[in-house]
Design brief:
Structural class: alpha+beta
Largest sheet: 9 strands, mixed
CATH class of the largest domain: Alpha Beta
Number of strands: 16
Shape: elongated
Helix content: 25-40%
Order of helices and strands: HEHHHEHEEEEEEEHHEEHEEEEE
Number of domains: 2
Strand content: 25-35%
Radius of gyration: 23 Å
């Protein structure tokens, strides 16, 4: 028998322990990300109406993490408590860098990028330490701008090509430094101070191609049952494929199913969540969803050959987070007398006067683009189980290796036009 020297044994034990600790830390961060995503989503469903809804938890959490770098006192404590972690921790920063990295792979048709931009009013001075830290881990850039008179570029063109710029909610402006962008995100950015001084903008852009694409020839106009019981006809995509699928129950014993559709390269996937009982309202599932349930999907999904029916849809949401974030525990940041952002600027009295969020998604036969959506007669009958999203459902676009939830939303009406 080969015997290892004592030093070698100690090294192996240390490596094993480090690997275990790293795995536990990543699991903990995944759960914290899931907890924030669910809390944010449930808070928005309580304030928004019952129409289609989409939010990018990754985009919002990254913006809050960047704020945390410059927050002090109780303001920072509230941000830490809501996110569940301290961005000054080295392990946390490494995880965030890993999860928000550019996953672009043109050969596989996948494009994902997150970025933070600080637009600074001329004359406002930022602390060098803050700008250095922000640039080091959040890929943040600092641009001078005239925030009191932003340039309102209101291009509303729908995505028609493969240009990534078409999906950016906000783009940097001209050489004069004024804000401009597609959509109207620049007008409702995170304005700070009684007069605009700093605007923090986080964007998430994604374009992906399905691992197995839906054939356009298989798409048919089929019934979709709305929440009020009425029925409409929508373009329903179809394919027979082997996918990851599972059946689950909530704490109140409500049954639901989860289908996972991978994108090319399998680093990202779209999970579709559907109540098992056709008459069970989606709101019941929304209110009972927890981060632990999200974590259980990874081990509970099994590869299954299925007939899949998924409506083609697109949606866009733009709303203020001004009431949602205080509901999550972040209140001081919006209070002119309580906010403490002295770690950002030498200017006194900085506070968040508004926080807005804009995101959109398009799900088609080829794949998905997003920017932080009567009995069927089969062409071929089979005995394979059927997953038919012909009624309101939830969806989550997740990064597989980190579990980060890039987009989360509900589809109530596929015929509802994106704003």
């Amino acid at each position: 028998m080969c015997r290892l020297p004592l030093a070698s044994v100690l090294v192996l034990l240390c490596l094993a322990e480090r690997s275990h600790c790293t795995g536990s830390f990543q699991d903990s961060m995944r759960e914290l990300h899931g907890r924030f995503a669910v809390s944010l989503y449930q808070t928005l469903t309580g304030t928004e109406n019952s129409s289609n809804l989409i939010v990018s938890p990754a985009s919002v959490s990254l913006s809050l993490a960047l704020l945390q770098l410059g927050a002090r006192g109780n303001t920072r404590a509230q941000l830490e408590a809501t996110l569940g972690y301290n961005v000054n921790d080295a392990q946390v920063r490494d995880f965030l860098l890993h999860s928000q990295g550019d996953l672009s792979n043109s050969s596989q048709g996948t494009w994902l990028q997150q970025t933070c931009t600080l637009f600074i009013q001329s004359g406002v001075q930022l602390l060098a330490e803050f700008t250095q830290q922000a640039a080091a881990w959040a890929n943040a850039s600092v641009l001078r701008a005239n925030l009191s008179q932003p340039h309102h570029a209101r291009s509303r063109s729908e995505p028609a090509g493969n240009s990534h710029d078409e999906w950016w909610p906000l783009q940097s402006g001209s050489s004069s430094g004024e804000l401009s962008g597609s959509g109207e995100a620049q007008a409702e950015a995170l304005w700070w101070g009684r007069r605009p001084q700093v605007a923090l903008v986080n964007t998430v852009a994604f374009s992906g191609v399905w691992q197995k694409q839906f054939m356009s020839s298989s798409t048919q106009n089929l019934p979709f049952i709305l929440s009020d019981g009425s029925t409409i006809k929508v373009p329903m995509m179809h394919q027979a494929a082997e996918v990851r699928f599972g059946q689950f129950r909530t704490a109140s014993d409500q049954r639901y199913t989860v289908l996972e559709l991978p994108y090319l390269g399998r680093s990202l996937s779209l999970q579709v969540v559907l109540p098992s009982e056709r008459k069970s309202p989606l709101s019941l599932l929304e209110s009972q969803l927890t981060s632990r349930q999200l974590a259980s999907w990874d081990s509970g999904l099994r590869r299954t050959k299925m007939d899949i029916f998924l409506p083609r849809f697109s949606m866009q949401n733009k709303f203020s987070l001004r009431s949602a974030l205080p509901a999550l525990g972040i209140s001081d940041a919006f209070n002119p007398t309580a906010a403490d952002f002295t770690g950002i600027s030498v200017e006194e009295g900085l506070y968040v006067s508004d926080a807005s969020h804009e995101v959109r998604i398009e799900v088609t036969e080829d794949g998905t683009k997003a920017a932080a959506a009567t009995a069927m007669v089969l062409l071929k009958r089979s005995r394979a189980p059927v997953f038919k999203a012909d009624r309101p459902f939830l969806f989550l676009l997740r990064q597989v290796h980190t579990g980060s939830i890039l987009f989360m939303g509900r589809m109530m009406n596929p015929a509802e036009r994106a704003i």
